[in-house]
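Practice problem: predict the structure.
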Amino acid sequence: MTLTTTLLTLPLPPPITTSFTTATSTTAHPFLSAAAAGTLPKPRLAAWLAQDRLYIHAYIRFIGALLAKLNLPLPVSQPHANQTTTDQNETKTLESQTLHTLTAALNNIVRELDFFVAVADEYALDLNTPFQAPQSEPGEAAAPAAAPAAPAVGTFTASPITTAYTDLFISAGSAGTSLLEGLVVLWATEVCYLTVWRNVREAMPQEKNGGDADGGALREKLIPNWTCAEFEEFVEGITRLVNAVAEREVQQSSAGPEKAWEEVVERCARWWRQVVWLEGQFWPEI
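Answer:
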């Protein structure tokens, strides 16, 4: 079993959810249910896009940190006495694959920024929509304050969850985190994003009488972009890369295959669970 398959099938303890399937279903959050039904109010979509745009800025810096982990330039010298030509070529191939994958991720996300602006302009979505903390229902006890504290009403800034995602990217790109773990975080964010929006697309009715509440932005532009064949191929490429890098770590470990595999899964599962939890919290209240 590959690393990504193992992570996808791991049980997710509370307060995350019971499984990855549950976490990415259209019933996981009212925001997703409304998106699938075409009833998502335009201001709430704008609020989410505004935070997603800030997330993209953190993502760009994260990709830069992962690029800095690559062992460049690639070696071209003759193999060492204890390293075969095949081993050296495999190392070059993985380094090259990682370089191309990360640069593709960077190019894709820069295009996404431009795409956000174009869609926002076409459908009158305000990408400077201020973050609003969830309000307690009458008679309901106020939820414990998140850390960091929610910004003042009317202030355009990162929400606590967007800030937490930024912190995760900083940690996953830090010098003390392996390239494999950083790639797992990258893969986790992309596979969650693709899966949840593919589920929303499949749950959407073909047509909605009276039109969508967001003016058609999700149905006509955003969801087709987030579930297109090119994005699916990109996620599949990251999946293959993560599994190959994980396999290399196991093979190069002196602990033995079984123990090395358990250690790799344990390290990567911590990052996987954090991403799934953050993805579940990223949707705004409606």
